[in-house]
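Support request, please re-run this one:
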Amino acid sequence: MKKLLAVLLAALLLCGGMAVGVSAETAFVTEAMLAGGSGHSLALKRDGTVWAWGGNSHGELGNNSYENSDLPVQVHFLNNVIAVDAGYGFSLAAKSDGTVWAWGENEYGLGGDANSTQSCVPLQVEGLDDVVSVSAGGSHCLALKSDGTVWAWGDNSSGQLGDGTTTNRSTPVKVLNVSGADYISAGAVHSLAGWERSGARAWGNNIHGQLGDGTFINRSKPVSVSSVSNIVALEAGLGSSFALTSAGNVFAWGNNYSGQLGDDSKINRAKPVVVRAPFGRYSVYGYFILSDAIAISANSCAVLKNGLIWDWSAGNFSARYVPNLSDIIDISSGLYHLLALRSDGMVFSSGMQVVGPEGIGWFNVFGIVGYYITYDANGGTSAPATETKIHDEDLALSYTMPVRLGYTFLGWADSAEAAVAQYQPGELFSLNADATLYAVWEALTYTVIYDANGGIGAPEPQTKTHDIMLILDKTTPTRSGHTFKGWAFSKTTGVPVFQPGSQYYNDTDTTLYAVWEKLPEPDPPRLLFSIWQWILKFIFFGWLWNR
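Re-run finished. Output below.
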């Protein structure tokens, strides 16, 4: 049994934009809800109709057919429904008039009568009224009445009906010693009931300790679960149990083969343990515990206040946020798949189903498939947020453009290696498939100019591409009376920074100036000096003669 915690956010959930067809004063409105079974799924719309998809070999889709459907189909003859749940090949619904309806597998009298024939349309369960909630287990059913009593029928081989026997029941019987309950949940072969202001009780199979009473003994009558109170949600799974408290903490007990209890071990627990996390509230036990959950599922997942799903089903060391999911307000688990409800009413399905979407897929309950359009900045930053494209409807791509230092954004392409953009921001995208669009970048270029700085024969300018090394031109200039020493950034420096053929990495427009060393002045010619000596001697001796 799943209860949606964010009623206000569900104003548009699973409505598909269709009018109910009656006036606002008389329109029936309920809380949206998802439910996962062994190989099928259910969605309760806010207008009180029920939609189903997946495996249908027992008629569990309730559409008067036994054919599987990979898109949601409306369950026949149901309206004003207030609660749904999906079991192993069968489905349950409670209506606003307090009646309960069942369809699908009926081996153990799951239809609530002595007739063991399966049905592909809903049939009313006999002997029940004033019911406000239902829960479907492996092969048994629970119903919660407005007075807080719990009623059960179906397989009772492990005492999971809670009537003090192990006799199968084809009509509902009252669970012993339970009254005033707020929550119920049926697992594979055990059952839970909880109270908001107190704790929980459990009954049925206890081979893994899933009853939480400190033993591994099956119980045909409810026993108290140890050390859990202030419960706001319960989930009974395949040999394990989970409780969500008003503080946002999650407690788990029972089967821990894969570490699914989240206590950093793989030891089965006969008493509840608090689920740990690498974030949250630091506990008195000396480690962090999950403390901001708003919804839980039986496959070790929780919706957090930030709208993300934390998954510890493979143990704490492999725990992670479920990728590509945000703004989630509720979840439900099937035997091998996960269902998630987003704040805009889109439904997410992931995992192995008999049929239907596998992996990651979005769709609404009218079978209008939604596709993820993911943006990859491809070396840049600030890519747009992932968008959802509705089947056969064009999506205007985000106008947000990524940024990358030293590059010009050209647009988007479906390959990370593309050099030519296929799409521009704001352009209509029509492909009906999940897609990742990669940013296409063009590197900036820079000009390197050579200045002979008083000389001649400077090399021609060169072009450098951003982030790519440039080999400087090996041509050397010349200057009379000077020796070329290299290149520098300053016209007046005497110390070169680069040599011809050097590796150059600067990403900016640059002028490199030739650095010169002046040659020394030559000695005067000795012949010329000797001539002047003789002239001076001639003049001197001539002067002496004339005296």
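The first helix runs from residue 526 to 546. The longest strand covers residues 435-443.
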